[in-house]
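Entry:
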Amino acid sequence: MILTAENYYSQEANRAYFSASQIKALMDCESRAAAELNGDYEREPSTALLVGGYVDAYFSGELGEYAACHPEILTRKGELRADFLKAEEIIARIERDDLAKRMLSGEKQRILTGMIFGVPFKAKMDCLLSQQNVASIYERYPDMTELMYAGGAIVDLKIMKDFEPKYRDGAGRLNFIEYWRYDVQMAIYQELMRQQCDERLPCYILAATKEKNPNIGLFQVPQALMDADMEILSERLPHFSAVKEGKESPCECGLCDWCRQSKVLTCATWLEEWA
């Protein structure tokens, strides 16, 4: 299957390829991810995702198409709803920062495909900086030494509530990049790009917050963290593939909306265990 901007998010493409989104969903709850792939579950579009999509669409030059596909961003009077006025404020904040603008100056929404551990993957990157782009950035910002000899860089734009750490059961307190598994996403992007350019490009998260006065930050994803992510993926991908193909049963997280609605009681819970 040849991927295009028109069919990239289709169910057919999602069945034919793994993606970072699928891997993150499977890591969160295999049962919900399998239901989504099978068409039994559909996530309701949240305002948070729509705001992030609005900002993404602006910087990729696709805001007109985005607004046409999402009329819910407008009031009955045809004005932007309050959440999207905040998105406009975030956009203005990013555009006021020279380094942030330069980090978004490369090729937008590039589609990649490749094999990772014998399994077909797809990716659609927010921004791919060329060697010329990173040389220009390093000349202006010499503290970014990792760009000195880089043949390019991968940048993903994220819109967050804030930059505060988050807690995950079994993992404890995590920075927001690891909590939302953005490091896993970037590890997959980096590997697919490596297969094309034979170089592991540095990866960055350019993030902005929805706070009253939007904060911005540029975060380099450590190579050691992405290497560890790929090792974990190599161990878990055979099972994920079997779940996707219906050959193995998915595990339930027991906490998400899908698991809650399919929960079946089999015994009583001791009150002392409920803590």
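The radius of gyration is 20 Å.
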